[in-house]
Every structure is written in structure tokens, then in C-alpha cells.
Amino acid sequence: MAKKTAKKSLKKAAAVPAKKKGGEIKLAIAGLGNCASSLVQGIYYYKDVKDDDELVPGLMHNILGGYKISDIKIVAVFDVDKRKVGKDVSEAIFEKPNCTKIFCSNIPKIGVTVKMGPILDGVADHMKNYPDDQTFLPADKKPVNIAEELKKSGADILVSYMPVGSQKATEHYAQAALDAGVGFINCMPVFICSDEKWEKKFRDRGLPCIGDDIKSQIGATITHRILSHLFAERGVTIDRSYQLNVGGNTDFLNMYGERARLKTKKVSKTEAVESQLAKRLSYDNLHIGPSDYVPFLKDNKVCFIRMEGRKFGNVPIELELRLSVEDSPNSAGCVIEAIRLLKIGLDRGVGGSLISSSAYFMKHPIQQFTDEKAREMIEEFIDGKRER
Ligand SMILES: NC(=O)c1ccc[n+]([C@@H]2O[C@H](COP(=O)([O-])OP(=O)(O)OC[C@H]3O[C@@H](n4cnc5c(N)ncnc54)[C@H](O)[C@@H]3O)[C@@H](O)[C@H]2O)c1
Questions:
Q1: Residue 211 shares a structural domain with residue 309
Q2: CB neighbours of residue 191 within 10 Å
Q3: Which structural domain, as residue segments, surrounds residue 309?
Q4: Does this model's pTM top 0.70?
Q5: How confident is the model at residue 13 (pLDDT cuts 50, 70, 90)?
Q6: pLDDT at residue 182 above 60?
Q7: What is the CATH number of the domain that holds 199?
Q8: Which of 210, 224, 306, 372 is deepest in the core (most CB within 10 A)?
Q9: Nearest CA to ligand 1 atom 42
Q10: Is the CB of 147 inside a 6 Å radius of any atom of ligand 1?
Q11: DSSP character for 384?
């Protein structure tokens, strides 16, 4: 019996051969919430984009490594909400509690039905205490086997959009990607692609991954990072800073109702800014995090940044900023880029965290770089001058 298990796990760890270059990118999604809704809408909104068109807002490349946006085909989707499970993805993305702006309502039937995932720790207990329209309503259905469904669907890539704090659920989907031989993009702050143990699993299996915790196009993190870098570059000493965020979607509700779920989100967001400072600040002097749930804001996130420092002659300088963004479309363009970069990794048979893409697109990558440097590294990766 013991022999059998050892053989089985050895078989599981075998490296996945490189994928065939070009053609479709078969995409699976775990968690069809607001971010996934924006992603799916974007795939259809920009289905006719060609290389010679004006650059699509939110992208660095219209065509990336030969891949068009329309090459991305959704082949499998997993969720646990009874208003989404069993429906075609084209309908399910508009079901409550999703509340993000609809910029592409005209989506044809995709022919992919949302399948029931294992709930595990995806739905926090406190989510029961809110009106149906604002919260998750778990379906009373038997979960499918994720690895088997991924294999059946022929997926190349699984993108995870689990709610913050879903340690077990995220690990379950990451393991299913490994078992099915599928690349993994982790958009949320449970550490997989930046965790030594998990990253090694992907390296050993010859599968690329990008993570963790997506950095939006122009969101609180990138703005705070760039300003921190600017202060450091111009020789201004930063003494204190905060970044407060409020919003009215389920992402905020989930984090606001149970502070313990926030732990890794806070680490991820704080590290993303700390890494750009000339000198690290003490815990008391740097405060970053999701701060409150304001239902009427829906998917509109408002961020307040304050920075206090000293310039020449120790003379004080203060900066106050308010940023208001629709949260979910803000990350969808970055994910469309990450999907195509991951497919290049799959085509080349690269295993492990794609260092360049993770540094540019994720708040908590395996290795932090300035955003400028990370962008250069991505171009080198596309040109084949950099392995990861
Ligand atoms: N909006 C952004 O730009 C942004 C930026 C950085 C990180 N993120 C992170 O991305 C993640 C997704 O964000 P969102 O706004 O789409 O959240 P959301 O709350 O709208 O969606 C989460 C979805 O996951 C489903 N779900 C819960 N448990 C599940 C399970 N076990 N299996 C399958 N599905 C499950 C829910 O039913 C829901 O549809 C969050 O962790 C968020 O913090 C978002």
C-alpha cells in the first residue's frame, strides 16, 4: 500500500512537457466574482483588437508573444454561490452579489456552465449576517473534482480569485492545477507563488505560475509605491504614511467582517510599499489596509494616502491624495497580460514563479523590483532573453 502511494506521488511530480505554441489559451477560473466578471467582459469587449489598433486601455501590449485577447477561451469555471452555479458563464457573471460596472453586456452564450467548487474556507461565517444582495449564498451541492474537471476541459491556465483569507480553498485550487498539469495565476493574497514550498512544487512539475495578489492598473498600491519611490529617489526622508481603503463590494465585506482574514492582505499591501522605501518604517509609522465597508460604494473603491517626510534642512513635507476607482476592471487588464505571459511560459516549458511578471503584476511576488525594472524584465522575457 505504502509502495503504491509513493509511486502515485512520484508520478504526480513528473514534469509537464512544454505546450504547443500558438493557438488558443484555454482558461479556467476559480471564483466568478467581480474581478472575474470584468475579465470575462474584457475578453469580449476587446475581441476584435489587432496589433495596429490604438493600445487598449489597461494593457501593455495588444498582441503579446503572438497571442491576441480573442485567443483566450474560457473552458471551465468554479464557484459556490447558488445564483451562479449551474448557469452559463455569460449569465452568471451578472448575478448578485456581483456589482461591478457592466461595460460589455452583449456576451453570447459561452457554453461553459459554472461548476460547484469545494467551499472549504471560501465563505466566512460572518457573511451570513448581511442582506442576500450583498453577500455570498452558498449552494447546497456536491463539489466537483477540480483536478479532473481541469483535465477534462483541456485548460492551460487556472486563475484563482478566492476571497481574502481562503487559505484552504486557494491551496486546494493550486494543488488541483499541479495535479492536472495546468499553469496557475493567483490574484489573491494567500502566498503560493511567493511561498518557497509551493513555488518549488510548480518548479518541479515544470509548470509556470504568477502571484500573489494582483496589483491593479492604477490602484492604491501602485500609486503609493510610485510615490514612495519618488520620495526616495528625490532624497526625501519618509517618516510616516498611511493608506486607507473603503469600498462596498463583497471583497470589502469579507475583509471588514472578520479582521483575522485580513492578515496576509495587510502583509502583501504593506510589503508592496515598504519594498520601495529608502528605509523601512516601523509598524507604528506605516499603516496600510482595507479600512471599512460602505455598501453604497459597491465596486467603487476610494483610497486615501498620506505621506509625511522631511526634505532639505529637515523641513517638513506632506502629501495627501484621494483616489477613486472602479475596483474590478482595474485588475482585469493586468490579468489579461498575465494570462498571455503565463502561456509563453507554458510554451517554453518553464517551471516556477515567473519572476518578471510576478514583480510587475503582483503585490507579493517572490522577488520585489521597482515597477520600471520589472517592466523591462517582462520585455526581456517576451524576447526570450530571460528565462522567467
Ligand atoms: N479588485 C481588484 O482589483 C483586486 C486587486 C487585488 C486583489 N484582488 C483579490 O481578488 C480576489 C477576488 O476579488 P473579487 O472582487 O472578484 O471578489 P468577489 O467577492 O467578488 O468574488 C469571489 C468569488 O469567489 C466565490 N467563492 C467563494 N469561495 C469559493 C470556493 N471555495 N470555490 C469557488 N468559488 C468561491 C464567491 O462566490 C465569489 O463569486 C479577492 O481576494 C481580492 O482581494 C482584487
A1: no
A2: 21
A3: 220-326
A4: yes
A5: low
A6: yes
A7: 3.40.50.720
A8: 210
A9: 188
A10: no
A11: T
